[in-house]
Model the fold of this input.
Amino acid sequence: MAKRTVRIARDKEAPGLNIGSRGRKGPTAPRDGRPLFDPSSPSSMAALRRTLNRVPEVMVKVTGGGRDSGTAEAHIDYIDRHGELDVLTDDGDALKGKDVSSVLVKDWKLDTVINQRHRDAPASGEKDKRAKLVHNIVLSMPHGAPPQKVLDAAQFFARENFAFSHRYAMVLHDPATDPKHEKTESGKNPHVHLVVKAVSETGERLYIRKNTLQDWREQFAQALRDRGVVANATPAAIRGKGRSSTKGAMHQHQERIAKWQSKPDANKKPIASLFLQGQVETAINEVVNGVVPDMPGKDMLESTRKNVVADWQATARALRAAGMENDAVAVEEFIKTLPAVKTDYEQLRDRVAVEQKPAVDKQSQDVDQLAPSR
Done:
């Protein structure tokens, strides 16, 4: 019988962080805020103070998933650096070698899953509608976290959620030991790549929904704290950080360009992104010529921010009513530090403005020299 997923409770006696809205766009009409934290819950207050102190936030991200056995095998080859890093499995084994990916694909019977629900691969340019065979997940902590503790927490997280149900394997990436990167100090952005079979041993499919990721972040953060690592899992909107609409592939593309620029190699120059190039050209046109483009997503971000601020203000009132004046004042000060709401385009435009400033200043100077004196 498949093991039921176990959820790590934040507080056995009282509710913790109240994030029902999770920063999503609320109704257009003004609404009263709802307290984000419960003054009567010790764990909720601990979460509040971690958030106010800007404790490092964990990241749990789904980076994709193989829709055929070949893609799944290729991803495992990538995360174990073609056999150079240990692969930890749900059986408790540590596998190493160039054949690990093929061994896992065979052991997990991924080809059998394909045959049971066969669908041909899409033609070039068509959307791939095949169901995922595996989910690729990354569990990460910012700079400074002990890599072994990140791995221990990831192993605990995986056991609690998938053991005896969905097959899984994981690999730790730490710059100090990762053969793909230049050797740097241990603990610089340590992260674990977790590959989970999408169909359980009893035929149940794993669906990862929006709320699932937040639940997983909370579980992973708790597992880290249990191991002495300071970690938090507050939704980005509550911290004043807008949810980026830029796809992960775009971020990876920018990273590849930056890496190539630091160490150019004519044979490995990344292919330019037409989308990113268009965004840069639009930003330059705004910075130099003052042509402001339409930004339909800005209204949604501002609406979300208004709701988040209302929730924080309600939190301050609830704390003050409970006699926690110092915490209420801290919340009010925190609200003042929330960064301005910016779309992905506006962030890019600001970077372009800094890079283009010398050219814009020179253009302004030339215009001043041409202007008739009075």
